[in-house]
């Protein structure tokens, strides 16, 4: 097995200003495509030839990538593409010819233009009544293409009616929300005005409130639903037309890679840079989070201690209208793709980028800000922990250690960043605080470094096999953790969900097979049982060719298997205890992906169980079911899952405004009822607790060694994420958890209850109140 295989990572840092990309060299992308094809044939686990069958998959993937809803191309277009390219794309690519990719993309661009022209005419001339009994198909990735333009026009009238209907419903919801806010503001002003401060003080809040409302009304000129719908499609066209040949080749080769399996991927130079940033959690840039607002890049976050923060002039909500390198001329960035703006702000350590900015506090003015790029550490996704101390109301108090891990990150080149090292630091402090049990939270963890998954397993089990792998030849290898003794050997639970994948599944499966930890979560994890490695395409290209933009191929080279012999491919890791989850009815997981590799098994390795006796799962399941059946929060999930499943299976939406308003009203009433019921429960519980609720301490890699623990309530989002963020408009930041009993989200609270059961049934320490014991007051 390769020492540094990497699994699929979720792309989430594309909007961070990273480093400037130099002017693109004249890379021969036809040559790049040919070498990618040969690499796939020789390096992929399947060793599948790039033949006519793969050619057909490539074409279908490419068409789906461009037109995933099957609304821009007609069946006539598709038939034409298939007759020309279904069995010939392999020949073209292997002859260094990428003109079919460009041709299809150009036709796609033309079709989008035609649909926008149709949209303009229809929005102007067609009368949308919103009173018919017609419906529209929601998920169209498997739907047939419209057979010709006449059928396409009919489909698009339905699409536009649905678009307009959604905008009208959104306007109604906004108006209602604005009315509520105005009523709250008036009520607040009335209370302040009634305070005994004299008549002038009474009138002032009302006057201010009136001015604010009048000012807002004057400034706000809402666009019509028709204008917003058209604008959305025009933005799509702008985005499409901005793509250059390198972007088109990226789409095309990504479609080719996906024909082999869902996790084989061609990565352009920019995508490779972003992937490396996710793995290392650091970058060279200015340290600013960008977002698009009205087609202009806006500063939505500033990394604390980064170059922009130290320089001090760039502020939250400032808008960037131009970017220049050193003393060079400015490049206009309005209407530009966000990723291209990010690319221009990228650069080498010590170089200068100049930004032309409209300051948030004076939008009419323009200022030039020069920032010297430097290394920026991204803390938001690093491992962090909590120490939870349960209230007496739940029974004898427990100290639960909780480690949050969103990815298995690592610096593969210099080794300066390590998930395992970070978790060990946090765990060391939790152990010092004498925790009764540990929860490792892998929900939403899409994987990362296999090496880190193996090393991290070694913190919890002594030396032994962790994972097996099989290559295309059928050769089986395995990897072991090397610690002679577990760093932490206390009670342990791993929390997973449907999005826990790859390295997360390796860790969870190993701890389950060793009978080391209790696995709790959704019905299964993602089901990604494959190993990828990253191969630079330039390594396979001729010495004399330009390789500067050749990119990389992330290719599946092995399947991995549990030490007990089964694969996690397709099936994932099934937990010991299942919690109700809406994700179980969603189209998530390997089983829903195209071209997924099959499930199979290999012989088990020899390994020693940590606990000889099986966990008391029958009794724990009985206790869990009893709580879930009585817990309204989980019943909401069960009921909503049923409704969602019905909607997914139905896959249509009404084009009748009255029906949609009725559905929206029913959903709103249901949620308001749930909120009211929840608020009543929280109020009753708080009166009972009398401030003796959970005590939660927050641990980060910055404060883990501090003498005193820091209460979660005293921990700011800036301290937690390492980034200054623009405040929410409604001022309700951090209030979401307060609506739940104990201020703890339902799955987390139930995990704590399960840990109490686990300790009660597997240790001699008292964790539950006796039958004759009086409840805590």
TrEMBL record:
The superkingdom listed in its UniProt entry is Bacteria
Give the start-end ranges of region Disordered: 180-226, 660-679
Does the UniProt entry include the keyword Transcription?
no
Q: Which UniProt keywords apply?
A: Hydrolase, Protease, Serine protease, Signal
Question: What is the annotated signal peptide range for this record?
Answer: 1-25
Q: PANTHER family, per this entry?
A: CARBOXYL-TERMINAL-PROCESSING PEPTIDASE 3, CHLOROPLASTIC, TAIL-SPECIFIC PROTEASE
Name of the protein in question: Carboxyl-terminal processing protease
- The record lists the organism as Prosthecobacter debontii
